[in-house]
Structures are given as C-alpha cells and as structure tokens.
Amino acid sequence: QVELVESGGGSVQPGESLRLSCEASGITFSINSLGWYRQAPGQLRERVADITTEGDTNYATSVKGRFTISKDATNTAVYLQMNDLKPEDTAVYYCNIERPLGTAKQWYWGQGTQVTVSS
Description:
By secondary structure, the protein is mostly beta strands. 0% of the residues lie in helices and 55% in strands. It has strands at 3-7, 10-12, 18-25, 33-39, 46-52, 57-59, 67-71, 77-82, 91-101, 104-109, 113-117. A hairpin with a 6-residue loop joins strand 4 (33-39) and strand 5 (46-52). The model has no long low-confidence stretch (mean pLDDT 96).
C-alpha cells in the first residue's frame, strides 16, 4: 500500500522560510514524477512544483525564484524549500506521486501539511 507522509509545515511571518518533506512508502512501481500541490480555503488545488525522476523541474509562476523542489536518489522522498514566504502562500500543501498506468496516469497523495504565513 502506498503511503505519502508530509512534514515541515507551520506558521511563519512574511519573508521567512520553511522546508517541507514528504516520505513515500510502498512504491513498487516506476513513477513519472513527484510534486507539491497546495489548496487554500475556498480555492482549487493548484500545482506548486514538480520534479521528474530525471531531475527536471517545473514551478508555478507564483513561486518561481522563491521555492525549490528536490528529491532523493531513490525517488521516494521529495522536498520543497520555501523562501521569502508571502501571506498568499498560506494553504494546505500536499505531496504527490504520478505513475504511468498503461496510456493513463495515476496519482497518489499525502494527507497534507498546513502552511500559514501571517504577520
């Protein structure tokens, strides 16, 4: 059974930093990528950043230059270094793993970790 567990969320002031971690277990198949999404109250879940197994990264425009995604060599852990946090970064952050499933894709999600940025 696949399980993703996030950690590292918390409450910080604008301009401060946080580092999120996500550890995956039960991964017995090939994956396409690992990523981070977030969902603010009343908003749709949005992609923050993702990283392929080869290390290629993509970022949402709103976080580019402030956030950095990385992973471990076994593709079972993904991290999100968040610098210069802004109040609009407040959300529940979810880690994600995408796997190929025939011609389709399948996603696995963690339970989420709250990030609150407020003065």
